[in-house]
């Protein structure tokens, strides 16, 4: 009886909203996480893209992450507050080679605060510096990133959507933090092994991944 009850219990769902300027790699980040692919050509997100991915957290906990990828031009749009509403996690994404994309996160965060000012529970906010594969072109210093995190109690992440470096780890840590789950060293190392496999796959297949599967498909973590 208990086995069948376990099988029938639904996955826990978390809503994560990805915010930031256009060209910071928000869609690439979501696609790399949900589909393990990277599109080389920039395509502007108009309004909203939506991704789903199931991950496994310690305690054999199945979590379905709803990743809402909000277009960079929607900061003044009427729908933005509706996209943000009800989110358990917010990813503020900037390009480490583009200082203005970092400065503009203040405006994005102000919208988040306004939407949640009367809410009893506040979303976890993560500061995500993307494009660490372009470290040699970095214009936003790491200490500036960390200071912004400390001032606002954000969690801190550096990723490369292009190579996959630390992308899965970023989403895993955010989901675990929201649920109050501590990841031990072995679990973090396992995530890094997943990342390294992604990087190898990327270098072996740089041009063949051009087909986009349905964005709402469920992908179980292997």
TrEMBL record:
EC number: 3.6.5.2
Family the UniProt entry places it in: Belongs to the small GTPase superfamily. Rab family.
Cofactor: Mg(2+)
Gene Ontology cellular-component terms listed: nucleus; plasma membrane
Protein name: Ras-related protein Rab-28
Membrane topology listed for this record: Lipid-anchor
Main location class: membrane
Task performed by this protein: The small GTPases Rab are key regulators of intracellular membrane trafficking, from the formation of transport vesicles to their fusion with membranes. Rabs cycle between an inactive GDP-bound form and an active GTP-bound form that is able to recruit to membranes different sets of downstream effectors directly responsible for vesicle formation, movement, tethering and fusion. RAB28 is required for shedding and phagocytosis of cone cell outer segments (OS) discs in the retina. Also participates in nuclear factor kappa-B p65/RELA nuclear transport in endothelial cells.
Enzyme class: hydrolase
Localization annotation: Cell membrane; Cytoplasm, Cytoskeleton, Cilium basal body; Nucleus
Keyword Aminoacyl-tRNA synthetase carried by entry: no
SUPFAM superfamilies assigned: P-loop containing nucleoside triphosphate hydrolases (SSF52540)
Recorded name of the encoding gene: Rab28
Keywords, alphabetical: Acetylation, Cell membrane, Cell projection, Cytoplasm, Cytoskeleton, GTP-binding, Hydrolase, Lipoprotein, Magnesium, Membrane, Metal-binding, Methylation, Nucleotide-binding, Nucleus, Phosphoprotein, Prenylation
Species annotation: Corvus moneduloides (New Caledonian crow)
Gene3D superfamilies: P-loop containing nucleotide triphosphate hydrolases
InterPro entries: P-loop_NTPase, Small_GTP-bd, Small_GTPase
PANTHER family with a match to the protein in the record: PTHR47978
Organism superkingdom: Eukaryota
Keyword Endoplasmic reticulum belongs to the record: no
Gene Ontology molecular function: G protein activity; GTP binding; metal ion binding
CDD domains assigned: Rab28
Chemical reaction(s) catalysed: GTP + H2O = GDP + phosphate + H(+)
